[in-house]
Amino acid sequence: MEKLLSEFSIGLFFWQTVIFVLLIFLLKKYAWKPILDAVNEREEGIKNALLSAEKAKEEMVSLKSDNEATLKKARAERDLLLKEAREMKQQLIDDAKDKAKSEANKIINQAQEAIQNEKNAAISDLKNQLASLSVEIAEKVLKEKLSDDKTQMDLVKNLVKEVTLK
Amino acid sequence: MKQSKFLLSIVFSLIFGLSTFASSIKVSEKEKKQEGGIKIEIKDYITHHLKDSHSYSITSWTNKDTGKKTYIEFPLPVILYDEGFHFFMSSALKHGKSVVESNGKFYKLNYDNSKIYKTNKQGDLEYDENNYPINETPLDFSITKNIATIILVALLMFMLFTGLAKSFALNKGISKGIGRFFEPIILYIRDEIAIPNIGEKKYKKYMSFLLTIFFFIWFLNMLGLTPLGVNVTGNIAVTFSLALITFLITNFTANRSYWGHIFWMPGVPVLIKVVLAPIELLGVFIKPFSLLIRLYANIQAGHIVLYSLIGLMFIFNNMVGSSLSFVLAFFISIIEILVALLQAYIFTMLSALYFGFAVAEEDH
Predict the structure, then answer these.
(1) Where are the alpha helices (DSSP H) in chain A?
(2) What is the pLDDT of residue B94?
(3) CA-nearest residue of chain A to B47?
(4) How close, in Å, is residue A41 to chain B by CA atoms?
(5) B291 in reach of chain A (CB within 8 A)
(6) B237, A10: Cβ pair inside 8 Å?
(7) For position B364, what pLDDT does the model report?
(8) pTM reported for the whole predicted model
(9) pLDDT of the residue at B259
(10) Could you give the CA distance from residue B42 to residue B330 in angstroms, rounded to a whole number?
C-alpha cells in the first residue's frame, strides 16, 4: 500500500483526469452523439421500411382479395343478367306464341261461327224456298187433279175412308 | 481518410518530430559485470519500465568498448510547481546525470524511481535505507511518457470517431472503412452493456462515458503491448482517475431509491437496517475501488510476466531455454491482447452495472 501511494503521481492523475474528461465531452459532441443518432435513425429507417413493406404486402393481399371478390360479383351479375335475358327471351317467345295461338283460335272461331251462321241462313232460306216451292207444286198438282168432279169426289171419298171413327 | 492520415502525421510530428533527437551520454561502467548482474539488470529494467518516465524512450544501448550509453528517445516537457512554475525539457535532466537549474532552484532526477527531487547546486541527494532519496519533491505536472501516450490516444480517438461520425453523415447512416470495424463494437456497448444494465429509458446519458472509457482503456492496453513499452493503464494514478469518474457519475446521478437502499434498506427489520447501512456505505467506495485495483493489477501483472519471460531469454542464454521462453512470451502476448480487451470490457460493464444500480426504479 505504501509502495502504491509512493508510486501515485499527482501530475499524472491531474493530466489524466483533465484529458479524459475533456475527451468525454469532445467525443460526446463531435462523435458519439452524431454516431448514435445516425445509428438510431438508420435503425428507425429499417424498422419503418420493414413495417411499410409488411403493410404494402397486406394491402396487396387485401387488394387481391378485393379484386377477386369484385370479379366474382361481376361474374355473378353477368350470369344473372344472361339468365334474365334468356328468361325474358323465352317469355317473349312464349307470349308471342300464346298470343298468336289465341288470335288464330279467335279467327278460326269467328270463321266457324260465320260459317255456321251462313249455313243456318242458307238452310232456313232453303227451307223457305222449299216450302213455297212445295206449296206451289202442291197447288199445281191440286189444280191439275181437281179439275174434274170425279177426281174431287174420289179424293173426298178416300179422305173420308181414311178418317175412321174410333 | 486522406485527411485523417494527414492530421495523424501532424499530431505525430507535433509530439515527437519537432523534438526528436538522439542523445549520447557517457555513463560509468556499473558493477553489473559481476555474478548475477544480468538478473539485477533485468529486474531494474522491469521496475523502471513499469514506472512513468520523463522522456519517451524508444531504445537504448551501451557501447561495450567505450562504455557510452546511447538513448534513442523523445524529450518531453517537464513542468514543476515549486513556488511558481518551472518549465524545461526532459533532455536537460540527462537521466539523472545532471542538475537542472530553473528560476534559481535546482532539480535532479532520481533514475531508479523516475522522480524529480529538489537539490542544491551540486546535485546532492540524501538516501534512506531503501535507497530512495529523502529530498523534497516539487509538484510534478510534467508531460510524462504516460501523459504523452494519453494525449496521443485521446487525439487518435477523437480523429477516429469524428471520422466515423462524418462517414455516417456522408453515407446516410452507413459506415465506411475503419468505421465498419468500430461500429459493431459501439453497437455492442449500447445493446449488450448499456441497455441491459442501465435500462432502455436512462442509458442514453451514460453512453458517452461508457464508449469513451471502453475505447480509452482498450487502446491504452493495446498500446502497452507494443514495443513503445508504455504502461499507462497499469499505473495506479490513471486507474484511480478512471474509477473516480465512475464513482462521481454513479453518486451524482443516483436517485432516491439508491440512497434509500444504502442508508435505510427497505423490507428488513430495523436492527438489520442499522447494521446494513455502514456495510452498504462501504460498498459505495469498494465498488469503484475494485475497478481501479482490478485494471491496475491485471495490466501491471501482465507486463511483469511478459517482461520477465523476455528477460528469461537473456538469463538462459542458450538455444533450448531461450526458445522456450520466447514461445512462452509469445503466447502470453496473445493472452495479453485478450486481457487488454477483456479488462476494457469489464471496466465498462461494471461501470454500467453501477450506473444501473444508481438509477434503478423502485419496482421490486
Answers:
(1) 2-7, 10-27, 33-145, 149-162
(2) 78
(3) A7
(4) 7
(5) no
(6) yes
(7) 53
(8) 0.74
(9) 86
(10) 18
